[in-house]
Each structure stands twice: as structure tokens, then as C-alpha cells.
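Dear H.,

Thanks for agreeing to be a second pair of eyes. The structure we're designing against is below in C-alpha cell form, covering all 381 positions.
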């Protein structure tokens, strides 16, 4: 593997670690800096995630964010840390654009899967680090993550080269460079609109995991940070296996359209199972199995990448990242509010898994849109 590709994948991995490492300790950290029950902690967790996503959407050196989070003594410092993190964390679009630049049309979906696999590995290491280092205090994981981010920055300075050539270079215009501008440009491409909608709906539904998993595990099963970290690591391991290895044979067997259909159906079943599970051991078994649905994103990316020209690949990936950030703005508050509604004292109906039920409903909507409108992008490509 080329050093530059290794750097790109490592950067994505560290970004995923930034998500994963805070999940096991976040309920305890929020309750440490702001007294309250778990339902209130979940709502504050949703606010922190939303602020992070707003900054990521607007700005497109994670080290500073981790250091702020490590020394935070109040909820407002945690909020500041998420502002800094969102400003500096928008690397996904660059990573996918780089992979698009170095890949042929037939290899792009699989190479996007490598980026997904790097995310999965980060989602393994992050929760494990967060869970294990939680034994040294709720701040220890953030110091470790800051060090990793600084080391990776130094690595990138030496190995990352420009991939945009004169043949595909275009003048930089603000109307295309800003997040909303890139989305408006892509709407003009035939068949892309419905695929963008399916992608957005899927992202909103998938964010249920980072948004409520730690609160769900603590409320439903009484899990400690170590067990939460283990459960997320199991999910991340399977995510890396599916997107790094299984995606290629699955797509050869089912094609891109069939892969998207399979992923949606599997996700619906997984979310329904998690919504109603009451046994912690069974939940640990279901968690890695849920990752078998993680073929949707690379397959959708592959369909859309074929539908746009070589000079629009970076714009496409930027738009997809903007949609992911928009999902991160809306989904955490929606998911944590749903969790709080069904777990707060005096709730009319107690169901900690209610956010997963909501995600299942969203996936059904996305599946319907894809079935009714999904062929247009493939005909264009």
C-alpha cells in the first residue's frame, strides 16, 4: 500500500476513533460535569453531537479538540471542544475524493469500502481505548487521542501528494466550494437527487449508534464503560471486515443495486431486533451482526460516482460529506430526545430501544425511495 493511501486511511481511522473513544465515557463524563439523570445526560450528549456536526458542515487538527475535552470542567467547555472538533474534522470528503482520483470507475465502490473499513478499524480502537482508559479517569482517552492526531499530522506532511491533474482541475468557485453550493450543483445531474436522498436517510438512521448506544447500554443492561467499549469494538471489527473484505464478493454477486437492497433489508431487521432486546448477552451477539448491513454506503457511492464526470468526483464526495454532517445535525437530537422520552421517570411507555425503532422506520422510507427512483442514477452511469 502506498504511504499516501496509508495516511488517508489512517486519518479516517483517527477521525472514527474520535467518535468511538468518547462514546463509552460520555454518559459518565456529562454526569460528572453536570448533575442529572441518564435521560438528561443523553439530551446534552445530543446537543454536543449537534454542535460538532454544525461546525463540521460549515467548515468542512483534531488534537486541539481532544485537549479541550480532556481538561473540560464544565458542560460549556465540552461544548467548546465539540465546536473545535467539528471545525477540524471534515476530512471524509477529502479522503473519498483522493480514493476517487486514484481509482478506475470499476474499482471506486470497493476502494470507498477501504475508507469504510478504516472507519471501522477506528471504531474498534476508539471504543476499546475509551473503555480501557476510562479506568484512569474520564479524561485519559482524550489525551491519548490528541497524541495520535499529532503523530498522524507529522506523517502526512511527508507522504501526501496532490492527485488533481491539469486535465481534471477546475477553477475554485464559492458557489461550488460551500456545502450548500455543492449540493445545488449536483442536483443538476440526472438521477443523483434520489440517490442523495437515500444516502441522507440512511445516515440519519445509522447515527442512532453513536448518538444513543452508550446511554441505551447503560439504561437497558446496566453496562459500564468497558462493556460499552467492547460492544462497539465488536461492531467496528465486523464493519471493517464487511467494508474491507466482504464488500467485493457481495457486489460481484448482487451488483450495486442488489447490494443496496440487501443492506436496507438487513438494517431493518437489525434495528427491530435491537429495539426490543432485553438481554445484554444477546445484544452483544446482535451488535456485530448489525454491521452486515454496512454495504449500503459504498454501494451508493459507487452508483453516484459512475454518474458524474471525473472532474466532479471531489465535488460529489464533498456533497456526500455535507449530507452526512447535516444528518449529524438533525439525528443526534432526534435520537436522544426519543431515548429521553421513553426512559425518563414517569414515561407513559418505557422503551429504551425506541430510537432503533425510529431508525427502522427511516430505513423503510429509504428503501421505498430507492426502489421507486433508484434506477435513474444507474441508467445515467
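And this is the sequence the design step returned. I haven't edited it by hand at all.
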Amino acid at each position: 500500500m502506498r504511504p499516501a493511501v496509508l495516511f488517508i486511511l489512517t486519518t479516517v481511522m483517527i477521525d472514527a476513533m474520535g467518535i468511538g473513544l468518547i462514546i463509552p465515557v460520555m454518559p459518565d463524563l456529562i454526569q460528572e460535569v453536570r448533575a442529572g439523570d441518564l435521560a438528561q445526560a443523553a439530551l446534552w450528549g445530543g446537543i454536543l453531537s449537534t454542535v460538532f456536526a454544525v461546525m463540521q458542515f460549515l467548515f468542512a487538527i483534531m488534537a486541539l479538540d481532544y485537549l479541550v475535552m480532556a481538561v473540560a470542567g464544565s458542560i460549556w467547555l465540552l461544548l467548546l471542544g465539540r465546536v473545535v472538533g467539528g471545525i477540524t474534522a471534515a476530512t471524509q470528503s477529502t479522503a473519498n475524493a483522493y480514493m476517487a482520483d486514484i481509482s478506475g470507475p470499476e474499482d471506486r465502490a470497493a476502494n470507498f469500502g477501504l475508507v469504510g473499513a478504516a472507519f471501522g478499524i477506528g471504531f474498534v480502537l476508539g471504543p476499546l481505548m475509551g473503555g480501557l482508559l476510562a479506568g484512569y479517569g474520564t479524561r485519559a482517552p482524550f489525551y491519548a487521542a490528541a497524541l495520535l492526531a499529532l503523530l498522524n499530522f507529522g506523517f502526512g506532511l511527508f507522504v501526501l501528494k496532490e492527485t488533481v491533474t491539469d486535465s481534471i482541475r477546475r477553477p475554485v468557485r464559492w458557489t461550488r466550494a460551500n456545502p450548500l453550493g455543492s449540493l445545488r450543483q449536483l442536483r443538476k445531474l440526472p438521477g443523483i437527487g434520489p440517490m442523495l436522498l437515500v444516502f441522507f436517510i440512511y445516515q440519519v438512521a445509522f447515527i442512532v449508534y453513536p448518538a444513543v448506544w452508550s446511554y441505551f447500554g447503560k439504561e437497558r443492561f446496566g453496562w459500564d464503560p468497558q462493556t460499552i467499549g467492547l460492544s462497539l469494538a465488536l461492531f467496528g471489527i465486523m464493519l471493517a471486515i464487511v467494508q474491507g473484505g466482504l464488500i467485493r464478493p457481495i457486489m460481484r454477486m448482487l451488483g450495486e443495486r442488489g447490494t443496496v437492497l440487501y443492506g436496507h433489508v438487513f438494517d431493518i431487521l437489525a434495528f427491530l431486533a435491537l429495539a426490543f432486546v432485553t438481554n445484554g448477552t444477546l445484544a452483544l451477539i446482535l451488535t456485530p451482526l448489525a454491521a452486515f448491513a454496512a454495504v449500503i454506503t459504498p454501494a451508493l457511492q459507487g452508483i453516484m460516482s459512475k454518474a458524474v464526470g471525473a472532474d466532479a468526483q471531489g465535488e460529489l464526495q464533498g456533497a456526500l460529506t455535507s449530507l452526512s454532517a447535516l444528518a449529524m445535525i438533525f439525528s443526534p437530537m432526534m435520537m436522544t430526545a426519543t431515548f429521553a422520552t421513553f426512559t425518563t421517570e414517569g414515561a407513559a411507555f418505557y422503551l429504551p430501544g425506541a430510537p432503533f425503532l425510529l431508525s427502522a422506520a427511516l430505513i423503510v422510507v429509504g428503501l421505498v425511495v430507492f426502489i421507486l427512483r433508484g434506477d435513474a442514477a444507474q441508467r445515467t452511469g
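Two observations from my side: Residues 43 and 337 are 6 Å apart (CA to CA). Residues 164-169 have pLDDT under 50 and may be disordered.

Warmly,
E.
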